[in-house]
Specification:
This protein has 347 residues and is α/β, with parallel strands linked by helices. It is built from eleven helices and 13 strands. Helix 7 crosses helix 11. The radius of gyration is 19 Å and the shape is globular. It binds nicotinamide-adenine-dinucleotide and UDP-4-deoxy-4-formamido-beta-L-arabinopyranose (WQD).
């Protein structure tokens, strides 16, 4: 029997491209929408190199309603959509909140409207652990109360989840929101990975860019948190584990195994590592010494957060398989590949 057809918005991006590989390897037909705001079309050639299949690609902005309608006029028999497309830089969202509310919320509304018109009822949505803020209880489970996120970016994820839940309540729409903790690492082929355009904000690209000599040193933000070594704790999770969870979520919706119209799952490993432990692990697995300096706290940082994964393990039947060593080794292999290809990363 032919496998389902899945539209992947944000499919040329970091998590989207890894998910394309997992979907194609499971036999799904994939169609990508992306406006290349934070990614490159060439990523799809890399996906082809891994899987032997070049995904079909539509380059347009999801906030362009006409382009979206034309897309659905052209592409028929769509079984499900995975909606990765969003802007995700926390600091930029503080400086330019309207850009973030417009891009992340308007695109979602247009997509939901188009899904309704075209009677497409299955959606997997990219949410984030940012919706928990600093949780009162750790590990944090899906039914923990949501705190007001520090950034407009985080707020777009909370608002998006609310919009989706409201629509599910009054329509045939079936949605799974996946709340990712801290996705890192890259595909084992080193053909796809995270490609930050401009200076990265996130820890692991900062580590690998420093280690390879693009940046002089890594600043460790804070040494006086209430953690084992004073630096913040996060639940780092391999991007391929995240990608595989999306395939399981899609299967769950298409096979109508979901228990409610709207379901939410945490995607983490359940283990928290401090920033200093992460640096130490990087040095151990790669043998590269990192030039770092401890400095003051970064505003808006949560002290510690890691996932309760029991619900995802039991109900989704998914469990992260890859450890921190593997995450950092693959991130490093990817960094070396970017350097070998002379990709510009020093903005
Ligand atoms: P990414 O920037 O690599 O990928 C997002 C893609 O969406 C990019 O290719 C970008 O060009 C595209 N895009 C953005 N706005 C668009 C629009 N209006 N129309 C069409 N395309 C658009 O980011 P990622 O790390 O792959 O993140 C994917 C999703 O996961 C995002 O929704 C993000 O908020 C969420 N998320 C990411 C993380 C993380 O740390 N990477 C953590 C939690 C949640
Ligand atoms: C991790 C730790 C920093 C850079 C962000 C978003 C969140 C989610 C995941 C999308 C923190 C420390 C970092 C550096 C450092 N994304 N750090 N030096 O802040 O947990 O989460 O990405 O939804 O919404 O906020 O990830 O990688 O930026 O930071 O010491 O140069 O590393 O202080 O403790 P964060 P991060």
């Amino acid at each position: 029997m032919a496998k389902a057809k899945v539209v992947v918005t944000g499919g040329t991006g970091y998590i989207g491209s890894h998910t394309l590989v997992e979907l194609i390897e499971k036999g799904y037909e994939v169609v990508v929408i992306d406006n290349l705001n934070n990614s490159y079309a060439n990523t799809l050639q890399q996906v082809k190199e891994i899987t032997g299949k070049l995904p079909q690609f539509y380059c347009f902005d999801l906030c362009d309603k006409n382009a979206l309608s034309q897309f659905f006029e052209q592409e028929k028999n769509i079984d499900a959509i995975i909606h990765f497309a969003a802007l995700k830089a926390v600091g930029e969202s503080v400086d330019n909140p309207l850009l973030y509310y417009h891009n992340n919320i308007v695109s979602l509304i247009y997509l939901l409207e188009a899904m309704k018109v075209n009677q497409i009822n299955h959606l997997v949505f990219s949410s984030s652990c940012t919706v928990y803020g600093q949780p009162d209880k750790l590990p944090v489970s899906e039914n923990a109360p949501l705190k007001l996120p520090e950034s407009p970016y985080g707020k777009t994820k909370q608002i998006a989840e609310q919009i989706i839940a409201d629509v599910c309540f009054t329509s045939p729409l079936q949605v799974i929101s996946l709340r990712y903790f801290n996705p890192i690492g890259a595909h084992e082929s080193a053909l796809i990975g995270e490609f930050p355009i401009g200076a990265p904000n996130n820890l692991v690209p900062m580590i690998t860019q420093t280690a390879v000599g693009i940046r002089e040193k890594l600043l460790v933000f804070g040494s006086d948190y209430d953690t084992k070594d004073g630096s913040c704790v996060r639940d780092y999770i391999h991007v391929v584990d995240i990608a595989q969870a999306h395939v399981i979520a899609i299967e769950r919706l298409i096979q109508q195994k979901n228990k409610k119209n709207y379901e939410v799952f945490n995607l983490g490993t359940g283990h928290g590592y401090t920033v200093l432990e992460t640096i130490q692990t990087f040095e151990n697995v790669t043998g590269v010494k990192l030039n770092y300096e401890i400095t003051g706290r970064r505003s808006g940082d949560v002290e510690k957060v890691y996932a309760d994964t029991q619900w995802a393990n039991k109900e989704l039947g998914w469990k992260a398989q890859r450890n921190l060593d593997n995450m950092l080794q693959t991130a490093w292999n990817w960094q070396l590949k970017l350097n070998e290809l002379n990709m510009k990363q020093d903005d």
